[in-house]
Fold these 4 entries.
Entry 1:
Amino acid sequence: MKIGRLRTVLLGLAALLALAVACGGEEAATAAPQQPKAPQQPAPAATAGPAATVAVPTAFIAPTSRPVATAAPAPTAPPEQKSAAAAGPSGKITAALSSIGPRNYELNQLVWPWNDRNQFLGMYDTLFLDDRRPGAASLLNPSVARAWRFTDTALVLTIRDDVTWHQSKYGNLTVADVIHSMDRATSTGTKWTRAEAFTSNFKVGEIKQTSPNEITLPWNKRDLRWSSVPRDITLQSKKFFDEVGPEDMNSTPMGTGPYKGIDHQSGNILRLEATEKHFREQPSVKFIDVLDIPEEIVRVAMLKTGQADIIQMGMPSIPAIKGIPGAQMLMGPTTGLDGAQIVPSGQYYQTKAEDGKPTGRTPLTNLPWVGATPEKGLKVRQAMSVAIDRQTLVDTILGGLGQKHYLWNLGPGHPRWTPELEKKFAIPYDPAASKKLLAEAGYANGFNFTFFIPSGLNSTLEQVCQAMVPMFGAVGMNATVDRSAYSSVRPKMLARSIDVVWCWQETGWSVDPDVLYRFSTRAVWNPGIEYDKPLDFETRILSTSDPEVSWKVIIDEWLPWFKDNLPSFQTVGFAAPIAVGPRIKEWPMRVHSNRWPMDPYLIKLVPGK
């Protein structure tokens, strides 16, 4: 059945399901346990059984520190264990997501969140694997890079020689393929957001092969992101590229992962088939159909009818999922919480870039939240921040399974958050104070503004952001909502010309300090905010090899500056589960993702289903 017809058939069922939830949802929501307010120890890897009742998951918090980056010994890969039975992979499952993304397979042609798709779905391999499961030997694990070591001048990788391409005529992956993949991912005009982090850490033009299975990456300005960027580069065949060219390379899935892409119809379906042999993981499930189903209520109905085994879901759908016999909501290990961040763009205050050259940009002072003077702009941003009733968002949209949040990266629920920090940095709900601040800034009668809520990325985010519209309106800030796709607005972010207030799915907080950038000229991607001071903070946070030093800068200097200047602000933090049907027996994913069926090669089905 075509997806369009299936969607039409299911809409009627979805309406009935919505009515049932509306009638019984309040009781179900009340029965859901509250998300703990204190930090948790890492929980066991997610598994699922055929039980008819559902335990609503809470955020599983990863360790608060990572191995020190200067450790010299090269890690040795653990004994490899194949995950499928000797008979090989069998069966088929269906996953329904809000979008499968474009038919692009070159990393330099993929914007977030599509740049994660090809590795998360297991079609392409990377050099390292991130493993946040309790008991994991390390957060960073060998994959195509069998081992690595550090010198004063370079990162040296040892590449496996038994990694085979999906098209066997191209043989095995080589060092030349790895270097080619790095060159392409960081090429001029790349859309890969983390290209800047890679070129900051490594001298790309000097990366070279230093033995048959060894590659040397000379340091540029090494920082805490050194591991995350090689981990995120999907590896591609140089021979294939040379033979077919960039256009066909981009449209043809051809990697080395446990699954290979066999069909991709944008806006419709992506079909995967398990490879018979893989150096690291042997899938248990033979085929996976990933469907493009934008409407969440339809995805829930598909899970209920058995049309889907896995669905992307938002927090408001928890009562409906609880009403489906045999369904479960899974949370793999997380590195933190997602967050709904309000970004008042146009704050281009940084006059010189990192290289000392003038930026050529000035603050967009016609915008109320930037203001004729910095002081007036700050008052408007403060007015916006205290107009948000965070607790109501947690209690209603998130069903009690979330956290209030205030500033950037560090907040309630974080292992490092303390009552003292709560007292110092909490942002209250105070509509009277909001109106007073607006009047002081010259907007006693309020103002109208465009509120950009990107569509198709995260249903929880969209509903949280939409719920803020009447909160802004209650104090005189009247929002006209723009529901455009994120990809349509991204070029303005790259050009530093975005001029709206927007609601973004940014990390509410993370156990890693290496994501603290966004507020200077350093990053390729920018939300519309550039200040001089964050460049100094970012440099010191990232340049040390000791995360404890980074966290001290964050807590003692970054957060106070952030509160005093409020370039943006957080509202709530949450971790949305992924829902599965009764056919899924277990799924010990290494890292949680609500956006993609992460590590599908680890899924095992209930026998006979």
Entry 2:
Amino acid sequence: MSPGLLPERLHPDAAQRKPPERFPVWFASFAQSFAKYARFSMNLHISGGFAKLCRQIVPSAANRPANLALIAVTILRVRLLIRNKTEADLEEDPMGYKEVYEGWQADPEAFWMEAAEAIDWDQKPSKALFEKGDRLFEWFSDGMVNTCWNAVDRHVAGGRADQVAIIYDSPITGRQQKITYRELQRRVAKFAGGLAARGITKGDRVIIYMPMVPEALIAMLAVVRIGAIHSVVFGGFAANELAVRIDDATPKAIIAASAGLEPNRIVPYKPLLDGAIEIAHHKPDFTVILQREEKPAELKPGYDHDWAEVEAADPVDCLPVEGNHPAYILYTSGTTGQPKGVIRHTAGHLVALNWTMKNVYNVNPGEVFWAASDVGWVVGHSYITYGPLVHGNTTIVFEGKPVGTPDAGTFWRVISEHDVKSFFTAPTAFRAVKREDPTGEFVKKYDLSCLRAVYLAGERADPDTIVWAQNQLHVPVIDHWWQTETGYSIAANPLGIEQLPVKLGSPSVPMPGYQVDILDEGGHPMRAGELGAIAIKLPLPPGTLPTLWNAEDRFKKSYLTTFPGYYETGDAGYKDEDGYLYIMARTDDVINVAGHRLSTGAMEEVLASHPDVAECAVIGVTDQLKGQLPLGFLCLNAGSTRDHKEVVAECVKLVREKIGPVAAFKAAVVVDRLPKTRSGKILRGTMVSIADGKTFKMPATIDDPQILDEIAEALQTLGYAGG
């Protein structure tokens, strides 16, 4: 390399030269723009002593912009020379997925500190990762920051005051509402003031028990504004399940609505809330009730406070909290019947979600992002409330269903009407739409030219559903995989970095922060194509659970014990030769047929490819000879007149052809619907218990308990469930 190409500081005889006293203003700006680029490039494109020299200087450059500027310029010039390009070509040659992922691997600390620059801090953290010992980690712990400021106030201060923050669209009531960032700030600050005036302070827990209305988001933001911790419980949860969460979180207050609205019925929340408080050992100090005109509730004087009265208070400012202060607790089902309280620390949550909005979902601030979920689930926390608002997007609060409000075209109406750029829903929602409208007649009624991409998560996205969506919508349909515990995608196709080839059945590749390995029962890595347990190397990245609420031992036992040094996801799958990940089933859903470990997900994939099958599930039932046998449940397309026995025979033949006789798939039954949680997950474990005649606890999250009776009747026709 010619010495003439080197900046002054790195020139061979730099020691004899007088360093420059100052740098022009443009140079500092240039350095800031390319600092991240330089850090990654020096590990990827430069070799030998030069790379070593750069790496020695970078750690000392944090408080010396001149050093960082010089490194940035040097690396950039060298890379351009290697590729024989000019600086004008740079914008046409952005970093791809491989470079970004390898950049994270090379220096995780620098990667996440760079991502943290996009967040407003009251006090910046001294470093990213804090190791607590005994396999526990935290992120940005000594920073001071406020979630509500980053999600609301900074956008008002930064010129987005008149941008719409929340679009409320309720096909059930026919009402719509648009709330700007300015209005959102005013309402959140006043409602937070009302909570503070009633004794809510930093660290207090507040349960939120609300339907899909803007006030649900306002309540969440108001709680974190004053440093309290919210725990959102899905509106309409049974009283005994709500009571369990009250006793675990011990909230000082509960914020609820008088009722929730379903397509054909009103669900009164107040009686459920009163029943839960009566059952619970812990008694909240007070409640706040949002009165809905469809079903107002009678309030107890002095205990139940009307929402409007609380929001009439004087506004309060945001309270900075430590980076490791919990923003919220979100309960997820546990195998013991006791729900697990997943904690989300404030700083890592902000940094990670903000990073995903552009890099994974490819939306820019100001654009409309829609996650068709519920605030009671993790998707609602991450991508209805916090992710879009922190990033400066417009989010949609949708009070409706994929079908029946009023028809299978409601998704397309909302996308067209509100100029949605990126749409996120569950595969089960698309399967419901596909079942009602297999030829996409409703799609044709709307102009969907605004839509750039669709994202699926929550249940495994079968290839048939993805192909149907691609053919109807003519945009990338991206399956991605994550969990309540992680809070955002473990594996995805990062459209904001690079659109990778879509492989049907795969959520694509691990995101920065996640080293995903496939392990056998002994914890040994498995070869490409081999089915095993999916585990993530510790530490988990920012924004993921650091522990469980008041249950650290349970956290370690549930997630960290089976595979030392790893987080156990509970999912089974494999990687292909290109590093693409395939999620085949929950570990519990991998069945053992005569010594062969088989994925129920692989069989479901085959069944879903049958032209008459709209949706399906496969479970493993007990068999004295082979240990377990697979059994299929088939939901047919709406209007199908095929003979059920013929469809079953064709499906059995399909599995034999695609997977082979080893699957021993010989039995299936046609049912009208499958038992699911309200978030769309199929309750396979409960179905297994019914088939094997075992007692089971009614799942708290089940959408319609009556479906279990229908499943039992169907199983009895095959000789199971006591038949």
Entry 3:
Amino acid sequence: MKHVYITVKLVLVAWLIAPLTLSADEGMWQPHQLPAMADELKAKGLEIDAESISRLTEFPMNAVISLGGCTASFVSAQGLVVTNHHCAYGSILHNSTPEKNLLKDGFLANTFDEELPASPGSRVYVTEAVTEVTKKVVTGLDALKGNAFYQAIEQNEKALIADCESGGGYRCQVYSFHGGLEYYLIKQLEIRDVRLVYNPAGSIGKYGGDIDNWMWPRHTGDFSFYRAYVAKNGSPADFSEDNIPYQPKSFLKVSAKGVSEGDFVMVTGYPGRTNRYRTANEVENQFEWAYPEGKQLRERLMEIIEETAIEGSDERIKYEGLLAGLANYAKNFTSMIEFYGKSPMLAERQDREQQLTNWINQNKQRKQRYGETLSVLDGLIVQSQQHKERNLIVGYMRYTTMLPTARRLYRLANENLLEDMVREPGYQERDMIRFKSGMERIDRRYAASVDRAMLFEMIQRYANLPGDERIPAFDHAFNIGTTLDEVALNAVLDSMYANTQLDDLDTRLAWMTKSVDEFKASQDPFIKIAVAMYDTDMASEKKDKALSGKFMKVRPQYMQAIIAFNRDQGKPVYADANSSLRVAVGHVKGYSPQDGLRAQPFTRLEGILAKDTGNDPFDSPAEQLELIKQKQYGDFYLEAIDSVPVNFLSTLDTTGGNSGSPTLNGRAELVGLLFDGVYESIIGDWGYDPKTNRSIQVDSRYMLWVMKYLDKADRLLDEMELVYE
């Protein structure tokens, strides 16, 4: 491992100091890479110093924040935060009831006192430092293998994190780049008091619903506002009426002028995961098995929720967030499957691997270093797929609530027997606020009828697995024989849901501090299953970690070869997305989704009129429709389209996690919020195509138009600094 580390540093340094030619807008770049691209970025349209983008404690990067799954940004000196409507969805639902449905009707706080606590566990993370720590993570571990190697890496990461968080108020994490070739310690200020300030009505913020999701043309006002609060001394604190708005070191100005076709744009944010360096074997399995199976399971869970929870009921409100997430990825998977079938992706990956093999074999030193890497990696990939049917079904049981909750609580009791630094990540003292928040969120995200129906479905599917794929402890816990007795299973589940007390918040919180013996003595049916399954769960986890440890040895070698090969071919190298802070650059540009069609880069207010049916999800507020008919454009008119732009397209290279990311012009002014991509670009997680990869942004002019003319959010407009030139 030491040899791999030294070699990759030489390769990456050589690449960073070499001239770069960014002929396309591909790449999710780490901020420290941007100064090497300064000339190209300037030529594209960047007006600020590229060096400033690499300094995380300065403007504009210190104005860009993470919500832990979505991106957001400060837009005032009083801690006002703008993000996507769908990123604030959980908080909107948390504060909604059938009588006061904020999701449907919208919400606007007219004073600081009216701002509502966000859903439990909501956070604002401000990245303050990124430190390369590869040597501290991997040095001295060469001789270790499998689970021992995995545990040693984890222990080194925990030590770095503990030291980073020692001053309090920060959340730190070690991120792996290039499959484990590099490790970076990322330090973030963790603001724990987050409040909902404003969200437009669902008929604006979620306009078009699942029908328009991933589609163009689009007319969605996907924006909402939070505010970050801290203690009076400026330190992060839990919710308190005595807290005051956080004062960020920088905030983004909001452009009322916006952008035009062809303009430079960049996006800063926290993209989740991409898979651009995965092998042909992994591509084939994902597209020909995992995506089709996952799509079918998600669609079935959606059906169960819709069949079980009546629309408009409290039960349905609790599951609207899950429904939206399931629908989003069901459509995502559909697109993946469709475009994979039309594309030469698999053949291209196979060809790339053959070219890589040929390149390795052309040089004795390369052959000695990488000669067995691809075959070893493929062997591990095959091994990881051995129980994929079972793993998928068991994995989807996480969408239920009671069973995973019982297992997490019992795991916590066992972890509490250990010294804090030895505990599993997620069960350390640093995790307990998050753990408690997870217990609290259940009240607004759980209904017994829906949970039971989903668990029944998953157990049915599990019971149809071949006998050698079944888990004896699970079979015994649910009294599953050679064949499934559905009547008996229904009776078991009826009894479990009738007799559990884990649906009560105080009970769940009390179990967080109980002993292993108290769990073993419990008669709660879900806790009894958690206890019965524990040894099996731990054995399975140990086996998985051993396999992960093997991957962590060989994947860096594979990526080292890929980096050296790409460099030799004159191709740029950037790490796959991993939820860390990245920057992408591009331009406002339309595209051609198919022969004979040209998608324009902007949609207009009049498109809302054309789509309106009066029925969800195309049921714009009557007042909005009237304003459009009257051509009330105000200061947000764009002459080129003779209207106010609603959404726009860009060539920015983005993925999930970028939702809510500020889209900036060359002066780093906010001109939009990224919230989606076009249908043809979904497969971009596996490879960027400059012809069809397009991100969708809500235009800042539409956001301001809705705020000014429809929702009368004058307090917020006055608070932000708007730029008209």
Entry 4:
Amino acid sequence: MPAPGGAIQDEPNRIILGEHHYIDLMPESDSGPNAGQVVGGVVYHRAPWNESGWCGGSVFWAAGEHRVTWELHSRDPLHIEPSVRCTHDQDSGLVHGWIRGGRWEPIAPYHHLLEAHA
């Protein structure tokens, strides 16, 4: 995870979705039918009100030990449906958007939250 306020670093299994969002892809760890395949990821957004400066939540698009809640339309560039919305603490419902074309497309901009905690 990047330092609070720091630039998002390019890493293996990471897709940078924009200045304030990225997803770390998760391969299935079991020996089941999806072993080694990417079955979802953790979507992170900047959250300066958190000690780490980030907030993240899981999305899954392939069956395995996890419940499938998103549909993978394209792996490269990443496109999943439906939209993704954070439900944690202060940012509940305010960080909401689509992942389409490998980018975060906000439904509800939350720049005012970032500015309030700058």
